[in-house]
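Q: Here's a chain of 95 amino acids. Please give me its 3D structure as tokens.
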Amino acid sequence: METQIDRGLPLSLLATGVNLSLLSKVMSSRLARGTYNGGLLSTEAGTVARVVADGTITLTGYFGESKLLNLTMLPTLVIGLLSIAGTLVTYNSMF
């Protein structure tokens, strides 16, 4: 019997490390000071996002395997549309 290795979490952590490294080079020095700095806040946001994603997958599993893919993509659609709307509303005030 062959043991299957889950590579999802290590790859996710690797991507997070790369993203935080890039963030540290471009973020404002004002956000780089103190305990609650930009790196910590982005790490916590990523952790919360993983928890919400895992909860969404678990909850959609109750509706059956046949509907799992479509119901899992529904929150992604809503978040994407809200992000686009928020960008359109606030884009000019960012500069």
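Q: Can you summarize the key feature?
A: The CA atoms of residues 17 and 33 lie 19 Å apart.
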